[in-house]
Amino acid sequence: MLSKMTKGLVIAAIAATSMIAADKINGAGATFPAPCYYDWAYNYQKATHTRVNYQSIGSGGGIKQISERIVDFGATDAPMTPKELDAAKLFQFPAVIGSIVVAHNLPGVADEKLKLKNSVVADIFAGKITMWNDAAIVADNAGVNLPAEKIIVAHRSDGSGTTYVFTDYLSEASKMWKSKFGTGKAIGWATGVGGKGNEGVTNLIKQTPYSIGYIENAYKEKNNLSAATLQTAEGKWVSARKATFQAAVKQAKWSKKDHFYSSLVLQDGSYPIVAATFILMPREKAEVNEEVIKFFDYSFRNGDQAAEKLGYIPLPVETTNMVREYWAGK
User: Which pTM was predicted?
Assistant: First the structure.
């Protein structure tokens, strides 16, 4: 028999455990927005004492874990279609905007000095262009020292929303790529070495001279890497800049009915590889979802400066208002 005091201690311990559980939100998924989510989570915990534990495991892992109800929310850069969301019984909304850059480790070539046509990028990642001094690269880079060195392609080894967005861009830019490789979170690469997460690909590029790879812009900025200048949909040279990202965001065709399913790649007058990253929530867990929504609502109201400092683009006010209407209707 437990004494009254012991019983009281047990009840208090259970209550404390429940309080701790209620003050923690678990999420997992895309590496693309991870630096932003870490910052938002830190500030949210300071303001509310609620801990948001986010695991950067890739979009494929995020979709799997939320589909199996292992975490409270999932994160993916590859938006799920309305049909997929219905099958998995999930809600979906955008959280922040980012961009993917074609980063390189080409000795002596500074950031934005290398110009690559979108079709040339496709040919490099398809293994058709294999040398840095290939005529197709030289043609657009007068005065740039392009050595007779083999191009080492770095790509993702895991199921990745970043890969989905990048291959969506390549499919729009190149008929060859679309027919041979297509768009997906994981594809059969023709060449190169794989790294896990944006972190893994970033490290491969940093450590490997004459390499090239695709990473989220925040990882490029944080690691002081160089990236190529690409083309708009109309073929004009364009660098990764806040204004060129926003130009794509303004053309987003999101709707609450389709759970914000849309693509931002190769929009007119914008940087060509811009993407939203998305949050997934289960449809049957209203109380948990309310806590997740509180976190993102707070971040929408207070996290713009942190997002911009890391190289992301906050959602426009019109979009966050639409997201709040979407939440209210669920």
Answer: 0.84
